[in-house]
Amino acid sequence: MSPKLDRLAALAKEDPKRQFFSIAHLITPEALYAAFAGLRKDASAGVDGITHEEYQKDAVENIRQLHRRLKDGTYQAQPLRRVYIPKENGKQRPISIPSLEDKIVQKAMVEVLNAIYEQDFLNCSFGFRPGRGQHQALEEVGRVICTRPTGWILELDITAYFDSIVREQLMEMIEKRISDGSVLQLIRKWIQVGVIDEGRFLVSETGTGQGQTISPLLANIYLHHVLDEWFEEVVKPRLRSEAHEIRFADDGAPRRRGKGGRDVMRQS
Q1: How many Å apart are CA 135 and CA 126, to the nearest integer?
Q2: What is the per-residue pLDDT for 90?
Q3: How far apart are the C-alpha atoms of 201 and 240, rounded to whole Å?
């Protein structure tokens, strides 16, 4: 991380209840260009049809104009382009593809927000986090099974999780940490933007578009509050023996696989 993001992370770790009211200025032209450089060059284009290769031809000026629109408030999130990919069970998974500039801004924003939320997220969370994934989650599953008394294991999946997130609750959770109006406005734009599906413009009342760069982080924030903290602060103190939650993401949908001792539920 940059020194400014390091400082942001230090402040977040120092005070878990600190609210950050001025972080939008960290979305600099340099941060936007770094985000652009980190995007997949072969990714599908959004509704604007602009590819990474086309944007690259005049990237410096394009980024400069994008930053100007962010600063003067004229930046507008574009509708998502809905595509469908086949699943192993024969069904199709809807994926929403943002425009290239929306990907850039979201990726830069994720870098800033990660500096804060990585200090909040619990060790039980392995999905959609830097340096963490399924392999680390499975290693933790093995560690608990091999080193702790294990009576039984409960595995749970969340169906259509991204589509089911309650937006107002999500924003309330974010506002516990973020009070920067510019940042909150951007997040609202991204989660409320509609989708173009086979030529039809559709708007939903819930969810964050699966496929947006910001969505995995938002999904983690939501589950951090409604599951991880609840399990740690409410469930575990009431149990007579150990319980371990190990949560990870599989095929784009957060999954929880857990282990438990006798007469208790462990989930992850």
Answers
A1: 9
A2: 83
A3: 52
